[in-house]
Amino acid sequence: MSPVLSVRNLSKNFGGIKAVQDVNFDVAKGEFLALIGPNGAGKTTCFNMLNGYLKPNSGGSVQLNGKELLGTPPRKIWRMGVGRTFQITETFLSMTVLENIQMALISHHRRVFDMFSRATRLYVDEAMALLDLVSMSEHAERACSELAYGDLKRLELAIALAHEPALLLMDEPTAGMAPSERIALMALTADIVQREGVSVVFTEHDMDVVFAHSHRILVLNRGELIAEGTGDEIRANPTVQEVYLGGGTLFEDKKEAANA
Amino acid sequence: MGFYFAQLLTGLANASSLFLIASGLSIIFGVTRIVNFAHGSFYMVGAYLAYTIVTALNGGIFGFWFSIIAAAAIVGVIGLLIEMTILRRIYRAPELFQLVATFGVVLIFQDATLAIWGAEDLLGPRAPGLDRAVRIMGEPIPEYDLALIAIGPAVLAGIWLLFHKTRWGVLVRAATEDREMVGALGVNQAWLFSAAFVLGAFLAGLGGALQIPREAVSLQMDLSIIGEAFVVVVIGGMGSVSGAFVAAVLISVLNAFAILIFPQISIVLPFIVMAVVLILRPYGLFGKPGSEHVGTEEPEQPLKLMSQKSTMVLLAAVMVLAFSPAVTADFTSILLVDVMVATLFAVSLHFMMGIGGMVSFGHAAYFGVGAYAAAMMVKFLGFGMLPAMLLAPFFAAAAALFFGWFCVRLSGVYLAMLTMAAAQILWGVTFQWQAFTGGDDGILGVWPAEWASSDKVYFYIAFVLCLGGIWFLRRVAHSPFGYTLRGIRDSQTRAEAIGVDTKFHQWMGFVVAGSLAGLAGVVFAFSKGSVFPDTLGIAQSIDGLIMVLLGGIHALAGPIFGAVAFVMIEDWVTRLDYWRFIFGGIILVVVLLAPDGIAGGVNRLIRAILPNQKGGAA
Amino acid sequence: MLEVANLNARYGRAQILNGVSLSLGQNEVVAVLGRNGAGKSTTMKSIMGMVRQKTGQITYEGQSILGKPSHAICRAGVGYVPEERRIFGELTVEENLEVGRRDKRDDAPEWTLEHLFELFPNLSERRKNLGKQLSGGEQQMLTIARTLMGNPKMVLLDEPSEGIAPVIVEQMANVIAELKREGLSVLISEQNLHFARLVSDRAYIIEKGSVCYDGTFGHLDQNPEISNKYLAV
């Protein structure tokens, strides 16, 4: 089966610094792929090139179901079937939870220039169904600004799924959440992904989350892909241990910063 | 060759005063983040004071320069009083409030100056010892110009030393970056702000005082300089003093040469330069995107459709309005037309600011273009009233399409400044292009068609057009288009990530708001029978801002309340002597006492008077 | 030294703190632990007078400082080191320190430029550089040095180990030890349990705007379920 996403020779220089060098990988349909590595390893740069916020060096290629993504602005990449969530949630705070989803649907159905319909009456059922998917339907009428952080994360997930994407890009989906919440959110994501047949690429610092949910892991260091494999393979990989996972010493969390 | 060099020197001499006022404005903005409209008033008062002191002292070289400094120092003290009584209370308010409050100060100053010095222009004496001209390369150059050319860089050097070699200066620069942090390090911000404000006012006063040997002191000095001073600050980068210097020189020298080729250009040139600079460098030549550490603003609540009760109240009000010509006198109908025009104008401005998140300091541009387009179609093309009414808003739309394209590339206070620049360019063209627009004399005789000439019939035309426009904008606010605009305002990142072309959408929002402002202008033109450049002026734009602010920016119905209140107050006040003074006072009272608009203010008043009401009712 | 009782704080409609109570004794180093968004920084900012909407009691040396402006709180001897460092990028290192300088107080140790440059040798080399030219670690040192220039009696350190390399984190631990040696009281907010354990005497854990643990690190170590539940380890 041909991959959903195929990344070839992706590189990015900032000034003279090679932030990302010649990265290649594929994502299969329904695959849950984690991108890990120390701070400054190029995860975010990679991500921003996939979603169109950064322009890579010439020569590379990123194809979604055979269509080239590079050089396309973020909004068009979204239209081609890539949903995304942000490290720090981005939602429309002056709207209700339901309206946030409706906005995504309105855009998906290309009705943002409609000046006469009542926005709140459009796609209510579809929006409720999406909220159901993330178990948020009882919050539908609440103002988005009143939500707890964990709920905002779930809302973002529902927004990202509104246009039935083929691929979901999640940047540090569990940042700022308690461990119990993290597992719950990722379990929910994994469940939805499996049912809907979406592929996911996510970056993550919490190794529990990574090992529990990813099908495959890519490890970046200094802009290069240094390892690739299942959780067990990555855990056993001596290079990865050295640059990233560490041996559980005192400043375990900070090891990653050393290489930044 | 000598002629061009002389032209260059004239440009540099002009740059000095412009730099003085602009540097003061920039320092005040840098530290307090206030866009101080009253800065032109400081400049004007500086000139008047210098005139009075110089003529009273009549004391030769020493007396002259002492008077200049004394005038500037008095302006500094006036600045201190204003800062302590007014601005200190609104540092945390949105920029719109601050702008409107300082405009209230402008009005008060205008009438105070009129009361003290009278309406006549005053001609000051020449500077003793510098009252001749020297020949440079065969051209006569006034000695005083040479002195001014030296004063500009000298003041710049003085400010530089002050900012880099004194503890106070270091604190000011630190506060420009992050004033909250400066407070947490033990510096009393209140006094730092006051001191910066005094310095800024002193510099403006100095700029004005230095002008007395060169130009007559007049009541128009304030608003004629302020637009240019804003432009200089924005081009230089807000908060940057050296940027203000470079920009002042750039504008003045360009101007000195440009008028040789195209004499009419001087009014619009600064604004054109500013538009070009902002497109190339969105934060000005030396500016940086400010690291704002301001407390999180309270998120707006979701829009709700009106409850049945308020729909009934609104319908009743519209019905009363519809039947009012039957029972009231003609002048009431005329006043009600003014109210409806103002309301549509305010609603269109609110659509842009409240819904679209794009603060405009120059919304009058589209109002004026609508009015002028209609007037010119009637006068020059022989159009009838109805075709002119239908077509003119498209011209406003075209203007909004053109200027909006530039404006939506920026955000925040820079966007606001660019909208003002756009309005000033249009105003300048209208003012200068005598043959086409009638210039200062305006276009007269723009009357409605025969059948619509009675005040009552015209009332119904205005009723249909204005209420139709308001209804349309409300409808759009609740539509996917309006929701998308609000979404972009809330989070551009999220909007982009759900496939919205944010810049394009804002651009279209700008055009919608501009077109409806144009429609208001059209109705206005036929109701007055004439149009003047004022319809595109700063004052008209500010009126719109005051209406939106009076009503409260967070409510959809806010601008309606605001416009009605504004026209009523204006109609009453303008019959009085010194109405600007009173009106300025009213503005200040509203801004200081009811920062959440009329609706919010009334609410709080009720709670204050009847503290137990809420509990008692339960 | 510092007593916070039943502190509530909000930004707009969002209630961030829900009855936080904690205390800091003379010459004590206490850690406030919790994950992102739990309310650690808001607690710090509330003590420093940088949050406007708040209720409860904040007593410093027996005097209420609730509602006082932050410059007055600073002048009373409270130093604040913000989470995002917030150094002045357009000012030189020396000018940054100048902004923080306050007169010597009798009841607190005096920090001179020389002493601070001894403690932070990197800064000494870069004293003429602009703040924005410094690396993240150097900025972190500058922000602490800047606060110490105010000769405080008590220091609020908001996430000192956030986003800096381990070498610098170790240096940071030394600095905190030095502060304690000099007789200062220090309140640290941290996400990194290891670092907090290394430098502080006891700990609070904040979750959803309330204190949910108050005790020693020893007790915390014996009951790993607490840290598992509330902390990001």
Automatic annotation (TrEMBL), chain A:
ABC transporter domain mapped to chain residues: 5-247
UniProt-listed SMART domains: AAA
Gene: opuBA
GO cellular component terms attached to this protein's record: plasma membrane
Keywords per UniProt: ATP-binding, Nucleotide-binding, Transport
Protein name, as recorded: Choline transport ATP-binding protein OpuBA
Gene Ontology biological-process annotations: D-alanine transmembrane transport; L-alanine transport; L-isoleucine import across plasma membrane; L-valine import across plasma membrane
UniProt GO MF annotations: ATP binding; ATP hydrolysis activity; L-isoleucine transmembrane transporter activity; L-phenylalanine transmembrane transporter activity; L-valine transmembrane transporter activity
UniProtKB/TrEMBL annotation, chain B:
Compartments, as annotated in UniProt: Cell membrane
PANTHER family in the cross-refs: ABC TRANSPORTER ATP-BINDING PROTEIN, BRANCHED-CHAIN AMINO ACID TRANSPORT SYSTEM PERMEASE PROTEIN LIVH
One GO CC term, this protein: plasma membrane
Protein name, as recorded: High-affinity branched-chain amino acid transport system permease protein LivH
Family: Belongs to the binding-protein-dependent transport system permease family. LivHM subfamily.
MF GO annotations: branched-chain amino acid transmembrane transporter activity
Membrane protein topology class: Multi-pass membrane protein
Keywords attached to this entry: Amino-acid transport, Cell membrane, Membrane, Transmembrane, Transmembrane helix, Transport
InterPro entries membership: ABC_transp_permease, BCAA_transport_permease, LivM-like
Highest taxon of source: Bacteria
Pfam family, one: BPD_transp_2
Any Gene Ontology biological process: amino acid transport
Spans traversing the lipid bilayer: 6-29, 41-58, 64-82, 144-163, 190-210, 230-251, 257-280, 311-328, 388-408, 415-437, 457-473, 507-526, 546-569, 581-602
UniProtKB/TrEMBL annotation, chain C:
Domain annotation ABC transporter: ranges: 2-233
Gene Ontology annotations of biological process type: L-amino acid transport
Key words of the record: Amino-acid transport, ATP-binding, Nucleotide-binding, Transport
Record carries keyword Nucleus: no
PROSITE patterns: ABC_TRANSPORTER_1, ABC_TRANSPORTER_2
Protein name: High-affinity branched-chain amino acid transport ATP-binding protein LivF
Superkingdom per UniProt: Bacteria
Gene, per the UniProt record: livF_7
Keyword Nucleus found: no
Gene3D superfamilies for this protein: P-loop containing nucleotide triphosphate hydrolases
InterPro entries assigned: AAA+_ATPase (IPR003593), ABC_transporter-like_ATP-bd (IPR003439), ABC_transporter-like_CS (IPR017871), BCAA_Transport_ATP-bd_LivF (IPR052156), P-loop_NTPase (IPR027417)
SMART domains recorded: AAA
GO terms, molecular function: ATP binding; ATP hydrolysis activity; branched-chain amino acid transmembrane transporter activity
Recorded family membership: Belongs to the ABC transporter superfamily.
